[in-house]
Design goal:
The protein is an alpha/beta fold. The protein has helices at residues 58-69, 88-96, 110-124; strands at 12-17, 23-25, 29-38, 44-51, 78-82, 100-104. Strands 1, 2, 3, 4, 5 and 6 form a six-stranded mixed β-sheet that branches. It starts with 11 loop residues before the first strand and ends in a 5-residue tail after the last helix.
């Protein structure tokens, strides 16, 4: 089981879907919120809205990693991605930037992402369906 104190800040990031249910909008349809989190601090570095049940585009993947890098002008050595998440373009971009990508079962990441998901649901619960 992975735990935050086994990491140093910016050694590893986690890419994950912040919402459990799609975010519904009247005008533009449903979206998911993909976030990057520092594994050591559990700090949310950035997020990006993507069409529900999709994956970040190449441009969105580049933006996510670039936005995450802005916090300390550094990229992580490792990016953890939950098994089953469709994130092939994000994985390709991370690999292009020499970031090792590790797929892990989502349950192994709950110690990191659980609180962020709960807060997101509490704040935006009425838009989630």
């Amino acid at each position: 089981m992975l735990i935050p104190n086994q990491f140093k800040v910016n050694d590893a990031w986690i890419a994950f879907r912040l919402n459990k249910a799609p975010i519904r909008t009247e005008r533009d349809g449903a979206f998911d919120c993909i976030a990057l989190m520092d594994a050591a601090s559990c700090f949310l570095l950035c997020s990006e809205l993507i069409p529900a049940k999709g994956e970040p585009s190449a441009a969105q993947s580049q933006k996510l990693l670039s936005d995450g890098q802005r916090h300390h002008d550094v990229l992580p050595k490792t990016l953890y991605v939950p098994t089953g998440e469709v994130a092939e373009l994000l994985i390709q971009e991370a690999s292009r930037l020499a970031i090792d990508v590790v797929r892990v079962p989502e349950r192994e990441l709950l110690a990191f992402i659980g609180e962020a998901r709960q807060g997101f649901t509490e704040k935006f619960g009425s838009a989630l369906h």
